[in-house]
Every structure is written in C-alpha cells, then in structure tokens.
Design brief:
Strand content: 5-15%
Distance between the termini: 111 Å
CATH architecture of the largest domain: Orthogonal Bundle
Radius of gyration: 37 Å
Order of helices and strands: HHHHHHEEEHEEEHHEEEEHHHHH
Number of domains: 3
Number of strands: 10
Length: about 400
C-alpha cells in the first residue's frame, strides 16, 4: 500500500462518481429483485444470519460490488458469507437448517420439504373438511319441526357422531332469524351444560347447524321412567340446569324456551341446554321483548298476561315447572286449550292475583279480573302429593 501513488483530486472525484453510479445501479437491481425473492433465498439468508450475530442485513451478491473493491469485500465477508464458508462450517449450518436445505434440493424435483409438509394441511384436496355438506353422513332422522329437521349423523372428518339440524331456506324469506340468532349465540357459549356447536354449513337450499350428539332428552327420559324420577336424579338434573342457566344469565342471555324437550341428557347423566332459537341477548335498558315466547306449559303468568318487561325470572319460572314435573312425572300446569286455560290452571294452585297479592297486576295488558274465577292459594303439597317426598330430599319449607 505504501508503493501506491496518491491519486489527484480530479481522479478521486471521478472514481467517487463512478463508484456512486455503480452502487446506485446495484441498489436499483436489488430493489427490483426484492419482490421476486424466493423462499429458497430467504432460507439461505436466514441460514447465514443465524450464525453471524453481527449481521443485520442481506448479503449483496458479488456481482453488485465494484471491481476495485471485490477483493477487499470478499476478505471482510469471508467470515459470514455462506458461499465462502469452509466445508466443515457449511456442513454444520446445513445440519441446523435441514428443512431449508432440503427444500432447496427438492424444489427442483417438484417435492415439498418435510418442514413445509408438517405445517400444511394433512388432508388432500379431496379429503372431507369442516364447513362442507359432504363432510357429514346422515344416519337417521331424529325429529322434525316447523322449519327444521334434526338428523343423527357422523362426521367424515373425525368419525364422531353429531346431530345435524337442517334448516330449510325459503328463497323469498331468506334465513330464519331464529337460526341466525341460535348460531350467533352458541358460537360464543362454551360450557359443559350447554350443547356444543361444532360447525355451520350454508348452501343455497339449507342452513345446517352441526351439534355434538346427545342421545336423549329429559322428556324422553321421563317417559321411560313414569311416575317421577328418583330424588337423586332430580337433584342431579336440577343442579346442572341451574348451572347452565347461571352461565348464560351472567352473559345477559335469556333462553326463553325452557322445557324438557330442550334439555338433552347424555348417557353419563350430563344435562345440556339446547335449542337457542328463541334465546335473546338481553339489551339494557331496552324492554322491547316479545310475549310470544316459551311453550305454554312453562310460560310465566306475567308473560301470559302480556308483559314484555321481563328478565331472568322468565327462565326461572320454567325451572320451577320442570322441577315439579321431574318429581311428579306430569306437567305442573298442563293447559289444554289456550292462554286463558293456562292461567286458570296456574291460579287454581297459586290463587287468583289481585293488587294486594301481586302489586301492579291490573296494569298488565291482558289482565281482566272479571274473566277469571277467584281461587285462593293452596299449599303445594295439596297440589302435588309427591312434594311431600321432596321436602326431606330438597329441604323444602314445611309450610309450602
């Protein structure tokens, strides 16, 4: 270096301009290539930087370096340039980055690397997937309602039994709001005593809700055990019913259709709340609820009388009716005709209300005192003879 002649200022300026143009062209080529960077190049870059703590940028290709600087740059980069590593060092890097190296080797042969296969979908394009109608096989029909049919099915994805609630869509009406409400609410409810929604399948003709399969419900269970359930089973089911209701009530959701048919019972005795078609997320302070909710036998008297301002007490009345039905083996208030008959059956046991026993009852839209027979309230044991057994089992007040 001491024998080199010091260049003149003009020569310095000329070389600097030439160097600047060369670097500018090099950076332009790098910018153009940046979008075309392949996965293999990224792997090589990561491989080189992983073993070089001081390196924080991509290594420039050698052809972008000015001719008079190549030797110097090669010498300074020889400690971390993957193309200049000694054989033993390259071998070590290859072993640490086996997936990337395998990908580079196999890409030319059109094969995937083991690492890519491990993170990709294990199924082939023709394999059954969630969200597809052909992913489930219908086994048998379980029941049919006004707008939906329920089937027992089997998942082709994992082989598990499922319940398929197939909702028929009308072209002029679209998707029923009850189905939309049920799907939207159940997607956010995860609890042991709430039926689990697995999947939603939407086609032009149907909307299918895929639930976990539970083999029976409380209504069928009571039909198989007439005359009332064993007190221990009543306690077990009642506890789970209240626990499931507590879960949804804490999230400001009203079920609004509690009845034995909507309480599923598994073969292990687990009770699950189902059928959230009439459920409603309680908006505060709005009270614009419908009074056309809950099956007649389990509908509370204030709603029967036209009230639209109700809360969790709506569901709790249904719990009381189901409790009595599990003990007795028959419905607590089995109205056979209409709302008038249903109210008469309730008043026969609890007494015909007035402003003294029920303040504000006269303000309810459908309460007309002259329409109802005057009844005095009864002791619950007189109304339901088996409630005497429940007083010991459930610590019921002896004055009831």
């Amino acid at each position: 270096m001491c024998d080199l002649i010091e260049p003149q200022p003009a020569e310095k300026i000329g070389k600097m301009k030439k160097l600047r143009r060369t670097l500018s062209d090099s950076f332009s080529r790098i910018a153009l290539k940046k979008e075309d960077t392949t996965f293999e190049e990224i792997c090589v870059t990561k491989m080189s930087t992983r073993n070089c703590p001081g390196m924080d940028s991509v290594i420039k290709p050698l052809d972008t370096i000015p001719e008079d600087k190549k030797v110097r740059v090669q010498r300074t980069q020889s400690t971390f340039d993957p193309f200049e590593k000694p054989a033993n060092q390259v071998k070590r890097v290859h072993s640490e980055n086996n997936a990337c190296i395998n990908f580079n080797k196999s890409s030319s042969a059109g094969k995937e690397s083991p690492k890519v296969r491990r993170h990709s979908s294990p199924s082939s394009p023709t394999s059954p997937k969630f969200g597809k109608a052909d992913s489930y096989e219908k086994l048998e029909k379980l029941g049919e309602g006004s707008y939906a049919t329920v089937y027992k099915g089997k998942s082709k994805v994992n082989g598990k039994l499922v319940a398929l609630k197939v909702i028929r869509l009308q072209e002029e009406e679209g998707t029923p709001f009850t189905a939309i409400r049920e799907a939207s609410l159940l997607k956010g409810l995860k609890h042991a005593n709430i039926v689990l929604l697995h999947d939603i399948i939407h086609t032009k003709e149907t909307l299918t809700l895929v639930f976990e399969y539970v083999h029976t419900d409380l209504c069928q269970y009571m039909d198989k055990h007439p005359g009332g359930l064993h007190p221990d089973n009543v306690k077990l089911f009642l506890f789970q019913l209240l626990r499931g209701l507590s879960y949804i009530h804490q999230r400001y959701i009203l079920h609004r259709d509690l009845k034995p048919q909507n309480l599923l019972i598994s073969d292990t005795g687990e009770l699950k709340l189902a059928d959230f078609g009439l459920a409603r997320a309680k908006s505060v302070p709005s009270h614009t609820y419908s009074n056309e909710v809950v099956t007649l036998w389990y509908r509370p008297p204030d709603v029967l009388l036209g009230s639209t301002e109700y809360s969790t007490c709506l569901d709790m009345w249904g719990v009381g009716c189901i409790f009595v039905e599990m003990i007795q083996g028959v419905a607590a208030f089995p109205g056979m005709k209409d709302i008038q008959d249903q109210l008469e059956r309730i008043f026969l046991v609890l007494g015909t209300p007035n402003e003294d026993t029920w303040p504000g009852v006269h303000s309810l839209p459908h309460f007309k005192p002259e329409r109802f027979t005057l009844y005095s309230s009864k002791n619950l044991r007189q109304a339901w003879n088996k409630s005497m057994l429940s007083s010991r089992t459930f610590s019921v007040d002896e004055n009831l």
